[in-house]
Design a protein that fits this description.
Blueprint (H helix, E strand, L loop, with lengths): L2 E3 L15 E3 L3 E4 L4 E8 L10 E4 L4 E8 L5 E9 L5 E10 L4 E10 L5 E10 L4 E10 L7 E10 L5 E10 L5 E9 L3 H8 L5 H17 L6 H9 L4
Parallel strand pairs: 3-5, 4-6, 5-7, 6-8, 7-9, 8-10, 9-11, 10-12, 11-13, 12-14
Antiparallel strand pairs: 1-2
Helix pairs in contact: 1-2, 2-3
Length: 238
């Protein structure tokens, strides 16, 4: 059963329309002043996030971190509706693809009311013939003044056969906001590798250390998983 929450916003996908928030069975509701924190680790193709929608009321705090380990192909869709003042939302994601995986993230964060904050940080590594996609969007409704919203997607393409697509988007309809987004697709820094190898570190180990450091902005949020993530990176012949 779905319910609706009216927010007064009239913005959806770039069009001014009456747009109530649809709350269905896969939705998470964060009530006034509540905190919702979730760490999700996908270790097999049978694993899933378990929800695709979060509705955040006044003063709510949300922190969701999704880690996709090697060997997993998945498509993750996550929509967040911020409908109460003073809410904070932080989304993190890391993905390690060293073979033939196909991983896609789709995030949609909608600021419907004033004085709220959101942050998205997603870092990924693709090698072999893997394919990684990131499509992230922030919508700031006309009434959502004093919004602060940030989005970052950084990727390492380790082999020429890997394919990465990244498309961050901002749709801002308010004039008193602080918003930014950025995306990069890069290679391992050969000068860093040369420096480490000149000090006796083998080539594969140098690459591993670079990749561990690259994912740190996300994996530092889940220190309890650091050994498992490092082991996964070391176990791939990049």
């Amino acid at each position: 059963m779905k319910t609706r929450a009216m927010t007064g916003s009239k913005i959806d996908y770039g069009h001014y329309v009456d747009d109530p928030v649809e709350i269905g069975g896969s939705s998470i509701r964060v009530q006034e002043g509540e905190a919702f924190k979730k760490i999700i680790v996908l270790r097999s193709n049978e694993d899933s996030v378990g929800f695709d929608h979060i509705v955040v009321n006044e003063g709510g705090h949300v922190e969701v971190c999704v880690i996709v380990l090697p060997g997993v192909s998945t498509e993750i869709n996550l929509k967040v509706d911020i409908i109460g003042r003073g809410a904070e939302v932080r989304l993190y994601g890391a993905y390690i693809c060293g073979g033939e995986e196909k991983v896609a993230f789709h995030t949609d964060v909608r600021h419907r009311v004033p004085e709220c904050t959101s942050e998205q940080t997603f870092n990924g590594i693709a090698g072999g013939s893997a394919k990684a996609d990131f499509y992230g969007r922030i919508i700031v409704a006309p009434d959502a003044q004093k919004t602060e919203a940030y989005q970052s997607n950084r990727n390492l393409q380790v082999t020429s056969g890997a394919r990465i697509t990244t498309k961050p988007q901002l749709e801002i309809y308010a004039d008193d906001v602080k918003c930014s987004h950025g995306a990069t697709i890069g290679r391992l820094d050969e000068s860093e590798q040369f420096y480490m190898r000149s000090r006796g570190i083998p080539e594969h180990e140098a690459k591993v250390l670079q990749m561990i450091s690259f994912l740190a902005p996300v994996t530092s949020k889940v220190p309890e998983l650091s050994e498992e993530i490092e082991g996964c990176i070391r176990g791939i012949q990049w």
